[in-house]
Amino acid sequence: MNIAEAFAGHAKSRPGAAAVEDGERIVSWAELETLANRGAACLTAEGIAQGDIVALALPESIEYIALLWSLAWIGAVIFPINAELLRSEDEVGLGARQLKAVIMEESAPALPSGTATLPLERIFAETPQAENPAAACGGRQPLSCTQSSGTTGKPKTFLLNHDQVIASFQSDQETLRWTAEDRYAALVGPSFPSGGRLCLAALFAGAAVIIEKSKSAAELVLLLQEKRVTVTSMTPLHLRPLIKYGADKALLFPLMRSMRVATAGVTAVERDLARRHVTPNIIIVYGCNEQPWISAATPADQDGEPDSVGRPVAGLEAEIVDQDHRPLPLGSVGLIRMRSDHTATGYLDNAEADARAFRDGWFYPMDLAAINEAGYIFLKGRADDMLSYDGIKFYPLEVENVLQSHPDVKEAAVFGWPHPLHGQIAVAAVTTSAALAGDDLKDFCARRLAQYKVPKLVLRVAEMPRNPTGKIVKRRLEERMRRKLAAQGAKQ
Asked: By residue range, what is the domain housing residue 82?
């Protein structure tokens, strides 16, 4: 099935219902279909055909949502990118051989490689359009071109087809329970992989998509309340200001049916505060771009197993294995792997990454975890973050948890650093709510950890560098640490 067929079905059955809202501008399903058909006709006239990868380097708008429909309908492959990445082809991650065109605003700079660029204004100019054209492709045709988050290295690119994307919506249904009456606020915009997928999920269900452009927590609260939002998804970057704003107020969104929050960077304290002051209906989600939803923790799950990230979503099988890919007993810590009918199956032109992440039908996100008898998943860290001090292996997450248990530490990021005697030492970056000396934090850790796990250097930073979805980017912290270590040297 071509996903755009579902959109066309909503336009036929509910033509006057709101499909997308951007401030005061509201377009119905019938109007969105007209925009999408106009865009499809123009793109076809510009030479965009089935299988072509087309980048969307645009701010969120109604036209952006219409283009998702247009591209899907003609069989092109949607590649959402941040408009700032237009500065160079290397940052986009695809060369002219793979990337057919980039759609952008009239004022945006062109790629230096000469990749074809299509201004948004021209695409939605008045053009003749076919009446009710047939979808150009079926479910096995690639729909989206997506990249890994790039928090631990250069992003890797992969494709998902229509059937895989639709199957991922069905796995969400047990938790989110989408309906055509829902009103979804796109806080994580469609220019990011998770945001684009959730916009498609909302449209697939017939729900209204609300474009969000607020500048402050107060504006965001007003938008969500006035627009009667029932479902949204956010990162810690959205959640923290809401927690602060709602600390001395009544529950901000008592009637919101579901607020999806990514696990990355959300502490247990923040989660509990959010349930008390923002909405009680928070769902904690663990996933990655290759497998958008791996597990989900409902409020009941959070109460019963507060340290877990929930249980695997419907249709997904997960297990824990050792380094030789042998399944481990329940409760053991090892590599988590998973398989489903909506998991990515390989990367573009990256055999080395393929060999690490995909094996015998399983996908390995390179996370360490344990699964208990009830099926709950407990994350233990990144496999490629493992430290080796005098040959003794340990993981940063254990040290980060201890640092974050200090009352004045807000966040901590720990990583390994080469050492001439010990192989690797632990170093840490922290954000704090009070002035703290690095030696004080090292002493705090020394009372709770084995000596070889204690950070040998602690760097206080004003804020953690993050990617657009809120994950801490340790590469940037390592660069800052490199400068400090070069100045003073690692201490034993």
From this structure: 3-213
Interatomic CA distance for residues 357 and 290, integer angstroms: 10
Sign of the Cα torsion 440, 442, 443, 449 reads positive
DSSP-derived letter for residue 327 is: B
State how many domains the chain has: 3
- 92 shares a domain with 138: yes
- CATH number for the domain harbouring residue 358: 2.30.38.10
Look at 212-216, 392-396, 454-458 and tell me which has the smallest mean pLDDT.
392-396
For the chain, give the number of residues.
492
- Rounded Cα distance between 162 and 144, Å, is 8
Residue 404, classed as helix, strand or coil, is helix
Q: Tell me: the pLDDT tens digits for 152-197?
A: 456 688 999 999 999 999 888 878 889 999 999 999 888 888 889 9
CA 123/CA 223 separation, integer angstroms = 30
Q: What is the mean pLDDT of the chain?
A: 87
**Which long-range CB contacts under 8 A does 386-395 form with residues at least 24 apart?**
386/416, 387/415, 387/416, 387/424, 387/425, 387/426, 388/416, 388/423, 388/424, 389/422, 389/423, 389/424, 389/425, 389/426, 389/452, 389/453, 390/422, 390/423, 390/452, 391/423, 392/452, 394/452, 394/453, 395/368
Better-predicted residue by pLDDT, 143 or 90: 143
Distance CA(474)–CA(466), nearest Å, equals: 9
Could you give the residue ranges of the DSSP H alpha helices within 423-473?
Answer: 438-446
